[in-house]
Design a protein that fits this description.
The complex is a heterodimer of chains A (383) and B (294). Chain A is built from 12 helices and 18 strands. Chain A is α+β, with helices and mostly antiparallel strands and 383 residues long. The relative contact order of chain A is 0.10. Chain B has 2 domains: 111 residues, Rossmann fold; 153 residues, Succinyl-CoA synthetase domains (Rossmann fold). Classes of the chains: A alpha+beta (383), B alpha/beta (294).
């Protein structure tokens, strides 16, 4: 689950991480009152769960309440990276002297499987780009989760951050706070990019100008305190039904069980010159309403010319799956796209025989996976 | 021969009284696995399909002498179950549960480092040594005993590969599903080493998928440490970047973990990479035909 910038900032602030003065606005009235609080020089930022908003016109710097209102109206009726903008964050503008990068994430490479804190003196840029163009500017420390981030570890990478020594202690404090937030809320990633040195007169202070956080979906149950971004998409709708679904741009609608088998089927279709319309893994919902729900999602996609069902029953029996398929197919609308079925695993002969005996209109069952995929590929490619 | 489990393995099931626990315990018993006990706190003294249920793993171990534990408790309880298994000195934890918080897995694998216990999973379909023992979800009838070892991040697709091999008359020593989560107990490298050391395994099949760096690391390990022939396949050639493909660990992030990168790494280590299960089985069959069993 991804948090919006303002949600992540509020959480970071509760750990003592300094953030700019700001207000969330959804209406013109809220924009006006926010402007009174943080103006005259303001930043208006579209709140969507995606990076690189600036490049898509999602961030506005300016002054004057009229300009802010006009910009707010424009942003609130726009989409940024595919997400409708429903909220804005208005913040005070700060004089930025330099930009750094700071994050904590779970490093799974090389069997390390532990938290990693990452610092770079080159903040404000795309960190993935930096990792490939200037990896030497990234400084990391791996943390033993049993003992947590120790001050010497933090100090070591802070020294490499290029900050003036007067700010080192504050940087260590922010790093420790960010690590605590990562642990406490089952985060996959907590990131401040940029973490800036803000100047006012002779005073220099560190501020989190942006904030990013994503929470492990498997752990959200124990974090009712976390409010994440609400994303309305067919993917999240499918997830609410317990189905793993990713929409693609092809013509062969796919229903499968198991992530690997589903990907293998997609790849096989592509090898035959067809293209999958989606990834859909029914998981364990195969026996509990998963098939009619999957049909519903696929039928709503106008690009789908044929539906390929590829099931390999391991824990579940194919005769039981066949019964579910027969029931679900009875609910298909007139003139539905042809349905091609491959059924393998426990009791597969029985399951295939049941499907053949049911003689469902527009539903064909094939004895091998390769034949079913080839048939679906041919039907998906035809016009 | 086989790795990790055989006909002598004694298995205890954590969460045996749950829907999954009772169903899969029965299936394992039907296959011939020695399921000697189950554990569900608060339900000790009962039984599930003739298998005695105990309050704790220690009691179960004392009564039945099990060394393998199958974890079938819900995700939120896996950390507790795994720590109990490590403290009880079990040899092998087979974690069949999907939806384990990653920070919990991180603490479990940290604890495993200081123990002699191994863990497969989480989010693993389990493992099978055909004709000997099944600890997991595999459809037993598609497997026959033989000399091909399979290690896979995917569950269902590995069943398809096993079926394709069996249909060509090629049996398997052991098939291990290491699971699709971002953090796993057993790595490809660990499974490869076990197959390398197993006299009953002549050929190894490695099934990877997009996301993480596990296949790149496996390729490096094969180059340095594995002398037996390895054939492979990587799933997700058509997966778009930034989208999680079912498994929590199957996601291309920041241009890393792509199909192309994994395929190149494996080919660089001299490992052929097939494009379909049929092609993979054909590669193995060709090798077997030209290398009659010693």
């Amino acid at each position: 689950m991804k948090l919006l910038e303002h949600q992540a900032k509020a959480l970071f602030a509760s750990y003592g991480i300094p953030i700019p003065e700001g207000r969330v606005c959804r209406t013109a009235a809220e924009v006006e009152s926010a402007y009174e609080m943080v103006g005259p020089e303001v930043v208006l930022k579209a709140q969507v769960p995606a990076g690189r908003r600036g490049k898509e016109g999602g961030i506005w710097l300016g002054s004057g309440v009229e300009g802010a209102l006009a910009e707010a109206r424009r942003l609130l009726s726009s989409h940024i990276r595919g997400y409708p903008v429903k909220e804005l964050l208005m913040e005070e503008r700060v004089a930025v002297e330099r930009e750094l990068y700071l994050s904590v994430l779970t490093d799974t490479a090389g069997g390390r499987n532990c938290p990693m804190v990452m610092v770079s003196p080159e903040g404000g840029v795309d960190i993935e780009e930096l990792a490939s163009t200037d990896p030497a500017s990234l400084h990391t420390v791996h943390v033993d989760p049993c003992y947590g981030l120790l001050p010497y570890q933090a100090r070591r990478i802070v020294r490499a951050s290029g900050l003036s020594p007067g700010l080192h202690a504050e940087m260590v404090r922010i790093m420790e706070a960010l690590y605590r937030a990562y642990i406490a809320h089952d985060a996959e990633l907590v990131e401040i990019n940029p973490l800036v040195v803000a100047a006012s007169g002779d005073e220099r202070r560190l501020l989190a100008l942006d904030a990013k956080m994503s929470i492990d979906n498997a752990a959200t149950y124990r974090h009712p305190e976390i409010e994440g971004a609400e994303v309305e998409s067919v993917e999240t709708y499918a997830a609410s039904l317990g189905l793993s679904y990713v929409e693609l741009d092809g013509t062969v609608g796919l229903i499968s069980n198991g992530a690997g088998l589903t990907m293998a089927t997609m790849d096989h279709l592509a090898l035959l010159g067809a293209s999958p319309a989606n990834f859909l893994d029914t998981g364990e919902r195969i026996l509990r309403g998963g098939v009619p729900d999957a049909f519903g999602i696929l039928l709503a996609n106008p690009r789908v010319k044929v539906i390929l069902i590829n099931i390999f029953g391991g824990g579940v029996r194919c005769d039981v799956i066949a019964q579910k398929l027969i029931e679900a197919a009875a609910g298909l609308p007139e003139g539905h796209p042809p349905v091609v079925v491959s059924l393998n695993g426990r009791n597969d002969e029985e399951g295939r025989r049941m499907l053949a005996d049911a003689a469902l209109s527009g539903v064909e069952v094939y004895p091998t996976i390769d034949e079913a995929i080839a048939t679906a590929a041919a039907q998906g490619a035809g016009s | 021969m086989s790795i990790l489990i055989d006909e002598n393995s004694k298995v205890v099931v954590q969460g045996i009284t749950g829907r999954f626990g009772s169903y899969h315990s029965q299936r394992m018993v039907e296959y011939g696995t020695q399921v000697v006990a189950g554990v569900t706190p608060g339900k000790g003294g009962g039984e599930v399909g003739g298998i005695p249920v105990y309050e704790s793993l220690w009691q179960a171990k004392e009564a039945g002498g099990a060394e393998v534990v199958a974890v079938l408790v819900p995700g939120p309880f896996v950390k507790d179950a795994a720590f109990e298994a490590i403290d009880a000195g079990m040899d092998l934890i087979v974690c069949l549960v999907e939806g384990v918080p990653v920070h919990d897995t991180m603490m479990i694998v940290r604890r495993l480092k200081d123990s002699s216990t191994r863990m497969i999973g989480p989010n693993s379909p389990g493992l099978i040594s055909p004709g000997r023992s099944l600890v997991g979800f595999m459809p037993g009838h598609v497997y026959v005993p033989g000399t091909v070892g399979i290690v896979s991040r995917s569950g269902t697709f590995s069943y398809q590969v096993a079926q394709a091999l069996t249909q060509r008359g090629i049996g398997q020593s052991t098939c291990v599903g290491i699971g699709g989560d971002p953090i796993s107990g057993m790595s490809f490298a660990e499974a490869l080493d076990l197959f390398e050391a197993d006299p009953g395994t002549e050929v190894i099949v490695l099934i990877g998928e997009i996301g993480r760096a596990a296949e790149e690391e496996a390729a490096e390990h094969i180059r340095r440490c594995i002398t037996k022939p390895v054939f492979s396949m990587i799933l997700g050639a058509t997966a778009p970047p930034g989208k999680q493909m079912g498994h929590a660990g199957a996601i291309i992030t920041a241009g890393k973990g792509t199909h192309a990168s994994k395929t190149a790494a494996l080919r660089g280590a001299g490992v052929p990479v097939a494009r379909t299960a049929t092609e993979l089985a054909a590669l193995v069959a060709e090798w077997c035909a030209t290398h009659p069993r010693r």
